[in-house]
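pasting for ref
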Amino acid sequence: MDLKLIKNLLTMISDSEVDEVSIEEGEFKISIKKNKPQPAQEQVYYAPPAQAAPQQTPAAAPAQDKAAHKADDTSGETIKSPIVGTFYSSPSPEDPPYVKVGQTVKKGDVLCIVEAMKIMNEIEAEVSGTITKVLVDNAQPVEFDQPLFLIQPS
């Protein structure tokens, strides 16, 4: 086969729907494969299921309002998820959680794992202090910048 014939063959294949061609002529062998554009990866986001609000009786409403205001009054540092993924409170299902409410942590201590694309990302405390609230349930999907923990700095 000569170079002109190979060029013509390449042009014909690139213009056709054929993805791969192999030709053997005596001792000469040629195999041509088209570069296929990779399909775009589909990103899937999960939202936690919506929960129905509990029915309130008029007498219970003031007590719940006070509790809600008290919960809103929690101050401290908010540790947020740096990535979209799945929140895990422990290194494996058999292990205890990294941290619990009331536990004292130091800056750099591992608080949880956020798994994204089969990569386990350890989330560390940004400040030293006491865990006042865990805002996410184990194995729950989390979004970028979603609050995970409240820490009262010490």
